[in-house]
Amino acid sequence: MALYLHIPFCQARCSYCDFNTYVGLDHLYQPYVSALIQEGRLLAQQYSQPVGSLFLGGGTPTVLPIELLRQVLTTCFEIFVVEDSAEITSEANPGTVSLDYLQALRGLGVNRLSLGAQSFDEGELAMLERIHDVQHVGLTFERARAAGFDNLNLDLIYGLPGQTLTSWVHTLECALGLAPEHVSLYCLTLEEGTPMRDRVLAGRLPAPDPDLAADMYESAAECLASKGYRQYEISNWSLPGYECAHNLTYWRNRPYLGLGAGAHSWGVGLRWWNVRPVMAYIHRLMGARQTPWPSPAAEDGERISRLLEMGETLMLGLRLVYEGVAEADFHQRFGVSLEETYGDVIHELTGAGLLAWDQTRLCLSERGRLLGNQVFAKFLPS
Ligand code: SF4
After folding, report:
1. CATH class entry, domain 2-250
2. How confident is the prediction for the chain on average, in pLDDT?
3. For residue 355, what is the DSSP state?
4. Cα–Cα distances in Å, from 297 out to 29, 66, 260?
5. Is any atom of ligand 1 closer than 6 Å to the C-beta of 317?
6. DSSP for 150-178?
7. Is any atom of ligand 1 closer than 6 Å to the C-beta of 38?
8. Does ligand 1 have an atom closer than 6 angstroms to the CB of 13?
9. DSSP one-letter code for 9
10. What does the pLDDT read at residue 291?
11. Cβ 302 vs Cβ 270: under 8 Å
12. What whole-number distance in Å separates Cα of residue 209 and Cα of residue 186?
């Protein structure tokens, strides 16, 4: 089981972000952490599977004083069965963490750090309304190394308004110059309600060009491969052995428990999600002594039929570029073969050059990686 802890606080709001995160709620840090711990205590009584990965995401988990993260992590280690070899990741924003803070984080057992670098172009960082500049990325990266982190991820965004192929290649080269173990590349989506979308719609920023974004993706794939990074998922590259264990659980469609405001969970034939506002979440947990099924913080949920679980296993598993979905794993999990369940779709898509199928493993073809969403839709029940 993977365990996700959502910290819904940021120092400032980036122009493109629609995540469940808030600024100016510093006074709620302690009550929120108490609620998070309470939710953990209640759910740990029901979900006792070993935890293979723990992920502090957000928001910006490192806006919390280290003492609060200590409370959260030590409680998790006490109430969940966290494996000795567990990958424990925290997201962090460049320029917001000192060497002392990072050393303390490492001392708490966090063994992987994911830094939201996003770009190495000052103009792009300003447009994204990030709180850091280019120099901060390198500085925070060096501090993380000095603090003992030997598993570092950099997040980068492409397909930005006005971004050129030259500036993107520059960003990639600067990022790889730091020699991270892992790189995640995200194509910008203009989310409803974000200032960046409003600016593009109002003509104050140029609309992103999807063809150029596709060129950026392809040039990144070439550049990363030439430096020894292996693309193991559509948007993720790593040095061998540094694939993100936490996200692999999602892509393999295995159970995960999400604690915190707006967090999602999946397992035992059910998917559910928590209330999003911080105060509503705290109120749900205050004084909660028992777990209304599935969680006192759950806003809603849905039963996942076996057919939907099979379809989602394909949809997620095909994101794994080389691993894909193995016939043996699928059969062991569902008691039926891929061929007998999806034979017609598989033959149609292999015929169209979008899937590769050797009877033992189903993967996206190189062309299929560019048209992934169209492929995935074919496996979901209508
Ligand atoms: S730091 Fe991350 S979570 Fe926070 S506002 Fe920016 S993009 Fe959103």
Report:
1. alpha beta
2. 96
3. E
4. 17, 25, 8
5. no
6. --EEEEEEES-TT--HHHHHHHHHHHHHT
7. no
8. yes
9. B
10. 67
11. yes
12. 15
Q: Which residues pair with 9 in a beta bridge?
A: 22
Q: Which two tokens stand for residue 337?
A: 């073969």
**Separation in Å, CA 141 to CA 9, 82, 146, 346, 376:** 22, 27, 9, 44, 36
290 pLDDT higher than 80: no
Q: Is a pLDDT exceeding 80 seen at residue 242?
A: yes
The closest residue, in CA terms, to atom 3 on ligand 1 is: 59
State whether the beta carbon of 58 lies less than 6 angstroms from ligand 1.
yes
- Spatial contact of 153 and 112, defined as CB atoms under 8 Å apart: yes
**Least confident among 300-309, 347-356, 370-379:** 370-379
Residue nearest to atom 2 of ligand 1 (CA): 59
Tell me the CATH number for domain 306-377: 1.10.10.920
Q: 344 alpha carbon to ligand 1 midpoint, in Å? A: 42
Answer yes or no: is pLDDT of 293 > 80. Answer: no
Largest CA distance in the chain: 58
Give φ, ψ of 245 to 5 degrees: -65, -35
C-alpha 257/C-alpha 2 separation (Å) is 6
Ligand 1 atom index nearest CA of 130: 6
pTM of the model: 0.96
pLDDT tens per residue across span 153-196: 999 999 999 999 999 999 999 999 999 999 999 999 999 999 99
Q: Vertex 306, ends 302 and 307: CA angle to 5°?
A: 100
Whether residue 253 is predicted with pLDDT greater than 70 in this model: the reply is yes
Between the alpha carbon of residue 45 and those of residues 143, 175, 285, 290, 337, the distances in Å are 38, 42, 15, 10, 35
Angle at 229 between CA 85 and CA 145, to 5 degrees: 55
The model's confidence at residue 329, banded by pLDDT at 50, 70 and 90, is very high
Per-residue pLDDT for 285 more than 80? yes
Closest ligand 1 atom to 12 CA: 5
Instruction: Look at residue 288 and tell me whether its pLDDT is greater than 80.
Output: no
* Higher pLDDT among residues 115 and 286, named by residue: 115
8 Å CB contact between 52 and 245: yes
Decide whether any atom of ligand 1 lies within 6 Å of the 61 Cβ: no
How many angstroms does the Cα of residue 343 sit away from the middle of ligand 1? 42
Domain chopping of the chain, boundaries: 2-250, 306-377
